[in-house]
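note to self — DONT lose this again. spent like an hour looking for the file last time. sequence + predicted structure for the chain T wanted, 114 res
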Amino acid sequence: MFLISDFMDSGYEAALRIAGKRHDLIGIVLLDPREMEIPKVGMVAFRDAESGRQRWVDTSDVRVRSTYKSFRARAQANRRSLFIKSHLDAVEIKLDQPYMKPLVDFFRLREKRW
């Protein structure tokens, strides 16, 4: 079974573990490089997709960009750790690059393990 997501949410961990115990679950992780760093463009209004709340952020502030980059790196490390601890496979697909090579490489590696 394939689960295709950016995994940029929280609260899915228990369901992922349960599904992984019952199925051969493979995470297809979609990574958009534009979401890894905030560009330096000045004041920007950000809106929370779930709550609708809006907040202005000064993206030219180096602390803002650094904090966001650290947050994204920790989230990515936590997701990788979750998959490892749950004994689940995952393949990361960068949206700015062709997807065939990472998929082929992943399935070749997986075939060798079996």
